[in-house]
Structures are given as C-alpha cells and as structure tokens.
Amino acid sequence: MTNTLTYIKAWQKALQAEIIHLKKYGSNKFPVKNGHLLNQKDSYTYYFDSVQTMRIPIGSIVRVEWGQTKTEGRVLSSEGQSIIVKLEQSIGALVSEVTIWHDPWELLDQLIQRLEEVRKSKRKRGRVKKLMDPSMPAQHPADLIKSNVHEVVLRSKYNPITFVWGPPGTGKTYTLARVAANKYFKEKKVLVLAHSNQAVDVLMAEISSFVEKKGRLKDGDIIRYGSQLSEAVERHRLLHMSQLIIKQHPQMAEEKARLLEERQMLKKDLSSSFSQNDSEQLLQIETKLATVLEKIHQKEIQFLKEADIIGTTLAKAAVDTAIYEKEFDIVMVDEASMAYVPQVAFAAALGKRMIVCGDFKQLPPIAASNHELVNEWLKEDIFHKSGVTESVRYGRLHPHLFLLKEQRRMHPAVSSFTNKYIYQSLVGDYKGVAELRNKLVMKHPFPNRASILLDTSGTGAYCLTESSTRSRFNPWQLLLSFQLIHEAFQAGHRSIGYTTPYRAQARLMETLLEDLYETQLKEADIAAATIHRFQGSERDVMIFDSVDSYPQERAGMLLIGKESERLINVAITRTKGKLIHVSNRDFLQKKVYPSRTLYKYLNHQVELKQMVHPYEIGTWIKHQHPRLIWMHAKKLAGVMKDIRYARKSIVIAMPNDKELSEEWKQILAKRSHAVEVIYISEYVPNGIFVNRLMNESVPFPFVCVDQQILWLGLPLEGAKQVKPPYVTVRLDSQAVSEYVLSQIT
After folding, report:
1. CATH number, domain at 86?
2. Same domain, 567 and 650
3. Which parts of 209-350 are beta strand (E)?
4. Rounded Cα–Cα distance for residues 106 and 109 (Å)
C-alpha cells in the first residue's frame, strides 16, 4: 500500500502542475468592452461592461489581455454584466475591447498549504491513510440495522470511514441530513462539505428542517457559512450566517445593504453614461464596503466557534482558518465524485470520523492540465482511487461501501434507461413513484408524457463553435429550448431547468432568460447551467439540450468521450417530472458510435415512442412569446415590416453558392436609403446594392435588423439541411443578436 507521505507529495505536485497550466493558458475567458480608467493611484482601476453575466469572486486574480499587452490584476467588484478590476499596469484611458482570463488557481495553492500541514501531523496523516486504504474490517453491528439512516449512523459510529453510494433520487440528502441530525442530538461537532454551493445549500436546508420539526433547533447551532443567501437556505430560520448577522448585528447588516445598493445604482449609471464623478464615488463605496465586510467577518468567526453543525464548500474550508483550524467529531462530504481527491483527503484530516457520499457513476472532477499526475489525481474521484468500486464490477459491494438502492425522484419513463444501462439494475424504482409524479406529467408541454425526445433533424445547420472558448452553441436549439421553458411556465410549472454539455450554450441561455424572462425569473425557480453545474440539483421540468448538429463534422468529446456516460447520466436524472431531450437525432446517430451512451439513449427513446418529430412543431407551441415568434418561413410579411422600419442596419447572411430570390431583392429595395445593408457571404450578390460585403462563410441564413431583431432560417433559399415544414423564428433581443453577429463576423 502506498505511503501517505507519498500520496501527499504526488497530490501537491499534481496541484502545482494544474496551477502552472492555468497561469499559462487559462480556461475561463470573458470578452469585455467599454473600458474606462477610474483611478491610477498606486495601481490602475478599470470599469468594463460585459455582453454576458460574469461570476468572478471579489479578490480573485485575473489576467487581462489587450492586443499584445498582458497584465494581472484583482477583481474589486463583479456582478451582472459589469466588472471593476485593479490592474498592475495601464492599458489606456479608454479601451474598446479586452479579454479577461480567470481561473481560481489561488484556491489550489491554499490546498497545497493545507496538505503540507497534514504532512506534518501524524494524527492527520493517519486519518488520510484510512481514507485511501479502507481495508480494515467493518466494525458496525450489522444485525442491529433498522433502516438506511440507521445503518449509516452505525457505520459512521464504529468505522473511521464510511462510503455512501447514492445514485440520483435514492434519498442521499434525506439520509445524510438525518445522520447529521443524529450526531447533533448526541452533541457531536459536524462539518458538512461539498464541491458546490448548491449541494451544501440543499443538504444544510434539509438538516435544519428536520431538526426544527423535532423541536430541537437553537439559534446559531446550525450554520451555512459562505456564498450568497440562496432560496433553498432563505426559507429556514437563521440558517445562513447573514441571517444571524441581521438579527444580532442589524446596524452592520443595514450599512452593508445600503452600500451594496449604492454600488449597484452607480454601476448602472456608469454602464449607460460614464462620468468621473460617479467613478470616484464608486471607488469610495468599495473602500467603505471592504471595511464593513471585515467587521462582519469578525462576528462570523465568533458564531462559528459556537456552532455544532457547519456547512460550507470544500474550497472555502481550505482557505478559511475558522474552518480548517477546528477539530470535528465527524466530517461529511457530499457530491464527493466531483471533488479532487486531495480535497477529500484534506477534509478527512479535519475529523475523527468521515462519511464520503456521492455517485461514481456521475461526473468526475474537472482539471485542465494533461500532466500525468493531474490525470491520475485530479480527474478521477475518491471512490475509484480508494479502491471501493473494484468489487462493484463483480456484483459485490466493498465492506465500507453502502448503496442506496431505491430511487424516488424520476418517473419510471425517465429512470428506465439509467436503471438498466447505467446502474445495471442495482437500482430500482419506488413502487409509488409514477403516481407521485403524475400531477407534473399531466401538464403541458406534451401532457401525459414524462420523457420526450424533441428531434431537430432537418431544421437546419446551426451548430457553431464560439471563437474565444471553442465551446459549441446552437441558436436554433437554444430558441426551441426557451420556447419549451415558456410553454412549461405558461402551463403552471414553477421549477424548470435547462442543461447542456457546453458552457457557451448555457451562458447564452442565461443571457436570453435575463433579457426575455426578467419578471418570470423572480416568480419561479428557472435555471440554466452546464450539466456539470447541475449535478446535485433537481427540477420539476428539465430540458436537456445536446447542442451538437450540422455543420459540425463530428460529435463533441463531451458527448462521446471517456466520461460521456457519466455526463449523460447526470443530464437525464435531474428531473422530477418531465424530461425533454432536444437533439438532432439524424446527426448524432450518424456521428456517434452505437456503443456510446448517447446513441443507446436515443435508440431507447425511439423504441419507447418518446420522439416528437420536427413537423409536429405546430402541435406543441401553444403560447407565442411576444419577443419570440415562430412562423412558416414562406410568410415574409413580418420580415418585410422589420426591414421597412429599420433605422440603422440590415445584416443578411447567406451560405455559399446561394443567391437571393427576386422577392428578397424587392424587399430590400424598399428599405430606407439611410439604412446600411451588410451582406455576409463568400459570393457577391447580383442585382442588389449593399453598403458592405463581408467575405465570410456562414452555415445558415439569417437576417438581423438594427442589431436587435434576429430572423433565423431566412432567406429560406439559403437554408441547408432543411426539410418541410419550413419554419423561421423571429427573436427580439439585442444581447443575443449582438452575440450571434460577433461569432459570425
């Protein structure tokens, strides 16, 4: 067996290799614009606008690139579609466009330091050894077990390490929450950790709810530490640290809220009209806010000293002395399959006992470097690296691996695939789950159907690669998916999720929702995210957009690569009621090997008659959104009106060797002469005057009016991979129109 010191040395080298890679290449790239120099005392403070929402923690180190100039800086403020950064060198007073690179490598550096502390402690090394080599005999009394919860309680009482295998919907959160509560009732100190804030929120909310129902909840005993106050946590009295601050230190909380509001208003003013006075006020507010936040943090430290159950992320635990300097009776790590092995090892060192919970059939950790140690230790989960999955291959469970076998989340029409093909029938359905989900399944869209394959074959060649990130996006499937969200909302659903393998597509859906669904986002729980970010959460209705389509030559590695089975598994299992799979079946069944999970899933849906054909679009679109209108592509009255009333510009994109019809030439002839016509094609148009010809290859035709109105699929004569009925869609969104134009031109 490998020595613990050898493990630690390898982990530190792996983390260092990942840091070097992130520093050199970066992986999170944000194009920003309209840069203004706010201040140049000691350093250079800049304000930028962004087309899409940015989420970069305050204080993070970023790298800024402007032409040949590269400089580092720190984030002072990042919210919505604006960011303030302090740079080491000037890039000018006014900057039209720059690129900001961000990667949280500082967190990895902190983890290296924590591992060094583990290396120096014999007691902590002993805990890590038991995690990595759980070969000791199980000591819990198996004959006393009464339930799943009771078994985990007994296992974690008598054994130093307990692995809990929790496939989707099998009651993982329910079980862990009651185990944590049991330890709390016995006056044990419990640390709850997870890879994501969402997973921590869900588990801490369940713990608080259970303890409160028992009438044993005391203020400050159970604390969710770190992150913003989420809806899941907000419903529970004094669970989040911010709620405790508001109750016990109201003046500090009020001052913080006032400064945040003032900052938001000033940033809004700056985005519309820049002024030196506003910029100076903004910097003053940032300084005051930093002071208030430090005072609040000191109060938080005191609360944490007295708490019995603390919940936070693995990353937060590794950087905050209030967590990693404490000793706990038991440490519980949820969603452990997504955590780096060194993170779980660090967590093991913090407690006398440990529960590692997750699903090694779901997504593994993500790392950017291809260094051999990174591949070995940062791209595989703790279940595999500790060896507890070995016996599963032979139909047996490791002595320290406990399996939750009955799923209660999904309708059987959804779970039938994962139960059989992912879990090899080790997991089954609770006998009453279909009846439990019928109320959701009965509703539109697609009433009385739980699992739907919305096929986009023959609707066009819309799948592109984002220029800055190489991530794929598909505007046609994006708008179809938004229509599904709209139909679900109109039918009364208030818990709706959209997920996709690609970050570019997920960000574009976020942008679209913020633009078209601002009010509805406040009324309902509607979320758009990558499949990686959706792991650990669930919604009543889920839309899974696989994105890949023509004109791409092959399916993306996310859908066909080594970890594709785990990715597809997560995508399918997020729903409680309906799952709508938006996918180009023709493309994927030609480009994906039959042995791959996605190919099997498409076949499974077709065999069970779950497919909705493209020609059925008129049967399921019941509610046209005023800013997203679907219609027959041969009806040109709408686009004619938009062209006639254009104020500034008309962009027409035509694929190679396609020529505008006489009807279109007549339509364009009626435009105002003050309006600029930009024609995108590799061929010069005949019989029409254009102000600007852009020699670019485009895979699909579109019309964009005033960078606000986007018509996809028109002119129809330019469409490829299209079969009847010929459909076009009109989108009224400046943000999405500008994004599509930026990727084409």
Report:
1. 2.40.30.230
2. no
3. 222-224, 309-313, 328-334
4. 5
Q: Is residue 95 part of a domain?
A: yes
Mean pLDDT of 323-342: 96
Query: What secondary structure, in 3-state letters, does 235-247 show?
Result: CCCCCEHHHHHHH
527 and 582 housed in the same domain:
yes
The radius of gyration of the chain's CA atoms, rounded to the nearest angstrom, is 27
My answer on whether 203 and 335 are in the same domain is yes
In this predicted structure, what is the pLDDT of residue 1?
60
Q: Is the residue at 2 inside a domain?
A: no
pLDDT value of residue 82: 83
Residue with tokens 């490998």: 2
pLDDT in tens, 468-505: 889 999 999 999 999 999 999 999 999 999 999 999 99
Local structure of 258: helix, strand or coil: helix
Residue among 340, 393, 394 nearest 369 (CA): 340
Check whether 685 has a pLDDT greater than 90. no
Does the residue 236 lie in any domain? no
Is residue 270, in this structure, part of any structural domain at all? yes
Dihedral sign for Cα 229, 540, 438, 164, please.
negative
Instruction: Please list the residues that pair with 354 across neighbouring strands.
Output: 161, 331
Pair (454, 433) in one structural domain: yes
C-alpha closest to that of 161 among 192, 130, 126, 182: 130
Please check whether residue 238 is in contact with residue 219, taking contact to mean a CB–CB distance below 8 angstroms.
Answer: yes
Residue 334 CA from chain centroid, whole number: 17
Name residue 593's amino acid: Y
Structure tokens given for 639: 């686009």
What pTM was computed for the model?
Answer: 0.83
Decide which of 586, 616, 646 is a domain's last residue. Answer: 616
For residue range 354-394, list pLDDT tens digits in order. 999 999 999 999 999 999 999 999 999 999 999 999 988 88
Pairing of strands 28-39, 222-224: unpaired
Q: How far apart are CA 179 and CA 203, in angstroms?
A: 11
Tens-place pLDDT, residues 719-738? 999 999 999 999 999 999 99
Last residue of a domain, one of 595, 616, 637: 616
Pick the closest to residue 391 from 438, 426, 342, 364 (CA basis). 426
> Do 398 and 416 fall into the same domain?
no
Which CATH number covers residue 728?
3.30.870.10
Instruction: Express each pLDDT in 626-660 by its tens digit.
Output: 999 999 999 999 999 999 999 999 999 999 777 88
Domain that holds residue 89: 28-102
Of 473, 458, 467, which is closest to residue 547 (Cα–Cα)? 473
DSSP letter at 505 equals H
Residue 161, pLDDT > 70, answer: yes
CATH code for position 335: 3.40.50.300
Is residue 312 located within the same domain as residue 207?
Answer: yes
> Helix and strand tally (H, E) in the chain?
29, 30
My answer on whether 336 and 390 are in the same domain is: yes
Return d(Cα 548, Cα 447) in angstroms, integer: 27
Question: Are 544 and 556 contained in the same domain?
Answer: yes
Q: In this predicted model, what pLDDT tens digit does every residue of 229-270 receive, in sequence order?
A: 677 777 777 778 788 888 888 898 898 889 888 878 877 777
How many domains does the chain divide into? 5
Distance CA 248, CA 698 (A): 60
The CA distance from 492 to 480, in Å, is 19
CA distance 368 to 104: 12
